[in-house]
């Protein structure tokens, strides 16, 4: 019918709607939440052939050749599980096979210092999106990517994903800490659930921007920490080949 486009042929395998790529994408991708981090990483980990391929919905995406000579895409997911799930679902339809979230997070473990990087070996799903997708309460992330990240960062372990940055109740954080979670973000669990549905190898590394005592990094140091997570993610995609 004029003025319409064909609906997805296969439920769960949609035509990209929120991403509008203007060029082919790489089969491997870094997934920062923050579009600004996507731009900063594009300038650091991609060569001179880098180009922006998406700005629709403010989801800045870049693609080019990484320092290992292979194509690499960097796509921001926005904040929260629902946005992240949309983005990875559409990247799956666009052929992505390996993905690493390169994010920021709040520490639960008092041993973590602001600026520390944490590789998520596993994620506890305390968010609505991963549960709506039928994901497990606890998901293990890709062993090869996690192993490569673990070699580059100070902490590797359990991360939890929730739906609230501004919590209204301290009890959940106490329970996550008791379960051994080192840090909390919003997207790792949702991305793990989408990745599992599509057979995408998925890892996650997060920079601590708020410690367990409530000390928050200033903008400059938080930006640098997020970029360090991004560089660790790019190196892990190379190392885990
Ligand atoms: O810095 P990014 O990757 O966006 O990740 C974290 O920062 C946002 C909250 O400040 C949430 O998206 C959270 O998961
Ligand atoms: O979940 C998060 C991640 C980064 N910073 C926060 O304050 N919360």
TrEMBL record:
Its EC number is 2.4.2.3. Keywords: Glycosyltransferase, Transferase. SUPFAM superfamilies: Purine and uridine phosphorylases. It catalyses: uridine + phosphate = alpha-D-ribose 1-phosphate + uracil. Residues 28-238 form the Nucleoside phosphorylase domain. Residues 1-20 are annotated as: Disordered. GO terms for cellular component: cytosol. It holds the Pfam family PNP_UDP_1. The keyword Nucleotide-binding does not apply. It is an enzyme of class 2 (transferase). One of its GO terms (biological process) is nucleoside catabolic process. Belongs to the PNP/UDP phosphorylase family. This is Uridine phosphorylase. It comes from Baekduia soli.
């Amino acid at each position: 019918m004029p003025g319409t486009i064909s609906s997805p042929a296969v439920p769960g395998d949609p035509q990209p709607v929120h991403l509008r790529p203007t060029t082919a994408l790489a089969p491997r991708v870094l997934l920062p939440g923050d579009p600004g981090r996507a731009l900063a990483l594009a300038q650091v980990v991609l060569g001179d052939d880098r180009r922006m391929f998406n700005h629709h919905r403010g989801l800045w995406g870049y693609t080019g050749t990484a320092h290992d000579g292979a194509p690499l895409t960097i796509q921001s997911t926005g904040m929260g599980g629902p946005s992240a799930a949309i983005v990875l679902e559409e990247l799956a339809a666009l052929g992505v096979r390996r993905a690493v979230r390169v994010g920021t997070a709040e520490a639960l473990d008092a041993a973590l210092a602001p600026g520390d990087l944490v590789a998520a070996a596993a994620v506890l799903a305390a968010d609505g999106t991963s549960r709506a997708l039928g994901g497990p309460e606890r998901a293990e992330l890709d062993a090869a990517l996690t192993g490569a990240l673990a070699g580059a960062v100070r902490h590797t372990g359990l991360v939890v994903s929730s739906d609230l940055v501004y919590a209204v109740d301290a009890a959940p954080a106490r329970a996550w800490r008791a379960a051994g979670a080192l840090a909390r973000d919003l997207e790792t669990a949702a991305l793990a659930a989408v990745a599992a549905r599509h057979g995408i190898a998925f890892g996650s590394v997060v920079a601590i921007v708020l410690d367990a005592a409530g000390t928050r990094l200033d903008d400059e140091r938080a930006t640098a920490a997020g970029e360090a997570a991004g560089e660790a993610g790019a190196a892990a995609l190379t190392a885990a080949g």
